[in-house]
């Protein structure tokens, strides 16, 4: 579903490259966590997959019918802007030109937020806000869901609920998921594949291999 060949990128289009000769293949139906040290290019790779950035060299291609994207949770969600969860989702429904209003209810149901439809976004907890963003991304029934640090700023109980939802979407619906992760425990517990970025390049491994090779050395941070 996603291919990259000899992919290199820098923001000023000259070396040194953040990503340098990276090769990547993500198959349909996988749940891939992208991990690595801070500043290694995880979010940059996500933006290249989304098409927000263009490669400096090489190429990247995404063969998805529809994309859903959950960005990093922003403090702006806690602002006083008076928009309810339902209004936020319904505005996105209209942006997608979906005529059936039941898409909003289905998004709320999948994210477990049906009882919060009339709640202001700013009054939700961090975990509930993140679930609302996931509900928005699921509208339009994407076949590829991309997330950037889905558990950042979220309490442990809500983290468990969010990852249970993502795992269910992957296993039961066959949704392909690619997530930039700092939460290594969640990556190991939920991913089918881990892509470890280091030195501008990356390699795939199973969650067990990653745990034994990296976390066995006491490194619990991505």
Description:
The structure is a single chain. The protein has 222 residues and is α/β, with parallel strands linked by helices. It folds into two domains: 1-65 and 143-159 and 166-222, P-loop containing nucleotide triphosphate hydrolases (Rossmann fold), CATH 3.40.50.300; 73-141, no CATH class. Helix content is 34%, strand content 23%. It contains seven helices and nine strands; from the N terminus they run E-E-E-H-E-E-H-H-H-E-H-E-H-E-E-H. It has helices at 42-50, 85-95, 102-111, 126-138, 156-173, 184-190, 207-213; strands at 2-9, 19-26, 31-35, 57-62, 67-70, 144-148, 176-180, 193-198, 201-205. It is globular. The two termini are 25 Å apart. The model is unreliable at 218-222 (pLDDT under 50).
Rg value:
18 Å
Q: What is the CATH C-level name of the largest domain?
A: Alpha Beta
CATH-defined topology of the largest domain: Rossmann fold
- Major beta-sheet overview: 6 strands, mixed
Order of helices and strands: EEEHEEHHHEHEHEEH
As laid out across the biggest beta sheet, the strand order is: 5-6-7-3-8-9
CATH superfamily of the largest domain: P-loop containing nucleotide triphosphate hydrolases
Please report the number of helical segments: 7
Q: Residue ranges: pLDDT <50 for 5 or more in a row?
A: 218-222
CATH architecture group name of the largest domain: 3-Layer(aba) Sandwich
Helix content: 25-40%
Count of distinct strands: 9
